[in-house]
Amino acid sequence: xxxxxxxxxxxxxxxxxxxxPLEQIMHMPSAxxxxxxx
Length: 38
Description:
By secondary structure, this protein is an all-alpha fold. It has 3 helices and no strands.
């Protein structure tokens, strides 16, 4: 899968909510999809 194309702000919010480093967020499409879906 390709790396995510999301804004830095969104990535940062995800990193905070999931308590993960930003670099890891950028390689986790499933995590972003879960947030998108609700």
